[in-house]
Each structure stands twice: as C-alpha cells, then as structure tokens.
Amino acid sequence: MSDEQQRGGDSEEASQGEDQRGVHDRWTQGPDVSTKAQESPLPGGQDDDAEILRERQRLAQLEMMDRWIGGVLTEQRRTRRWKLFFRLMLLALVLVSLTVTLYRVFLAEPSAAVPAQQHLALVEVHGVIASDSPANAERIIQGLNQAWESQSASAVVLHIDSPGGSPVQSQRIYSEVMRLREQGDKPIIAVIEDVGASGAYYIAAAADEIVASPASLVGSIGVIYAGFGFQEAIDELGVERRVMTAGENKAFLDPFQPLDEEVARFWQSVLTQTHEQFINDVQAGRGDRLSDSPEIFSGLIWSGEQALGLGLVDELASLEQVARAQVGEASWENYTPRLDPFERLTRRFTQAAAEVLGLHSGHAPIKFQAQ
C-alpha cells in the first residue's frame, strides 16, 4: 500500500469517527439545534438582501423610538405626581388656616371671662363713622352697654381715632353716652388718639371727661356737603341727561343741573340747622368748660394743646396715663364687639357693585367729617 493510499484511509476513518461522535453529541446535534440553525441564518448573511436589511434597520429605529417615548412618558407621569402632591399640600395648608381662622372668629370663646380686678373698659371708635363701617352706632352702643354693665370696670373709655362721619350715627352714639352718663354709676372718659374731629368729637362731647395728646387733632365742629357741577361738561360731550321725577325738587342736587339761588338757600338752611344741633349737643355735654371764643364752632380744628385752652378737652394725657390714674396700672379690657368678616366682605362687595353700576350709595350727603 502506498503512502497516499494509507493517508486517505486514515482520513476516511477519522471522518467516520467524527460522524459517529457527532450523532451522540446532544449539545451540537438534535432536532432543535439543526432546525433553528436552518431557519435562522445569521444577520447580515449572504441570504439577506438589501430590502431585509432596511426593514431590520427600520424596526431597530422604531424600537429605540419606543424606548425614548416610554422614558419621556414615565418622567412626565413622575412630574405630574409631584405637582399634584405639592398642590394637595398647599390646599391642605389653606384649609387648615381657614378652619383655624373661622374657629377663632365664630367659635372660640374669649381667653378668659371679665377679670375680677378693677380695670378700664375700652370701647374703640376707629375710622369713619358710618352705618356700613366698623365704627357704626349699633356696634359701639353694644360695646358701651357691655362695658357699663361690667361690675369690675372702674371706668368706661371711648378710645377715639376718627375724622367723623355720619351725623345720624354720631347722634345715636352721643345720646346713648349721655343716657349712661346721667346714671352716674361710673365715669365715661373719651381718650382721643391722632384725630377726634367733627362727628368723633360730637361723640366725645357726651363723655364726663375728654383726654387728648398734645399733638392730637380736635374740634372741627361743623357740617359739610361737597359735590360737583357737570352741566357744562355734559354739554361739551354732547350727552343728553335724562331724569324723570315725581316732585319738582326731587333732583335738586343733580350734579348735571345748575344750582340756582333758591335751591342753594334751601340747602344751606338744612346745613345750618344740622350745625345748630351739633353746637347745642356739644354745649350740653361740655357745659361751662367751653370758652367764649366764637371760633370754637366755626369748623376749625386744633391741636390737643390748643383745644385744652379752648375747653374742648380737659386733660393732656395718654391712654396709659389714664389707666394708671384709674386702676393703678396700664392695663384695660376691650369690650368692642368683634367684627363679622363675612359681613364686612359682603358690604364691600355691595358698595363696589353699586359704584360700578352708578347706583346711589347709602352714605348721607351731609357729614360731620374733617376735610
């Protein structure tokens, strides 16, 4: 046997041996492996044409796009959850604050009952005196009666810081103070802070004693009506004013009509009579303490130091000094009724709506108010 024949026989035997071993190799042979190998050729193989390659690239791009969109949506959902969380926290804080406020205003009782020791009973008259303001007659009179009925109150103090306002509201408070003063159970003291003028001084005049600071503004005993005349302006604009009345003088204060002499005389008589009521009540309250100066009732306003010389006030002192003189210490109890916040909001809304619609407001045209 030649060498070439021998090598060929050896190769054939090796090949037969490998075939026999392969039949029994379960990792490289078997129906699953052979079938998958035949059905799934390697990517980019020779059997893949250009169209298949483009389709695979497109699918890969779509898969990448899906993953990116999924990440964006996940991040957006996470952001919305945090926003919702913070909004709910803010809403909870607002609700808690509102609940606490409403409880303190409507349900919470005063910190303590009226103290048993002697004290000053304070009633505040702050701001413009009007039926729709905090300084209205009903509220102040209610506080006065509560302070007067307190057994441990050694004195009632009208704490005044007001430029005045409605004549009717001022007269109501004045009459109630005079009624209590005539009973004589305890003194009523008016303490003027920055301003106690016009209608506010009207109220103070009913007190047993008026105290002011040297720089307080006191007086302005007068009556005022202020308006405008637009008759020429409306002619220039070419606007026709249409007013229908039952009664020839019903619209005598219409700002778009001229004010003739007869109407002016009539309206001046109304102001003069109201002024006389003011003067008479101040004289009844102050008595002989007023000086004979004719300027007292001219509408002028003075400092507290000047008012002392005119007899408009009795003493120059502060609220703390009055408290120490009456009860021995600078302390007092406030008897002014609490304000209803919803009622105030409703009143302000009604006033604003009336002004926008051009409706007549509830304020009186005549005022006891410093200008």
From TrEMBL:
Q: Report residue spans for region: Disordered.
A: 1-50
Query: In which domain of life is the source organism classified?
Result: Bacteria
Instruction: Pinpoint the Peptidase S49 domain residues.
Output: 183-324
Record keyword Methyltransferase present: no
Q: Does the keyword Membrane apply?
A: yes
UniProt keyword annotations, A-Z: Hydrolase, Membrane, Protease, Serine protease, Transmembrane, Transmembrane helix
The UniProt transmembrane annotation reads: 84-106
Compositionally biased, Basic and acidic residues: which spans? Answer: 1-10, 18-27
| InterPro entries, sorted | ClpP/crotonase-like_dom_sf (IPR029045), Pept_S49_SppA (IPR004635), Peptidase_S49 (IPR002142), S49_SppA_C (IPR047272)
Q: Which Pfam families match?
A: Peptidase_S49
Family stated for the protein in its record: Belongs to the peptidase S49 family.
Q: What's the name of the protein?
A: Signal peptide peptidase SppA
Species of origin reads Vreelandella lionensis
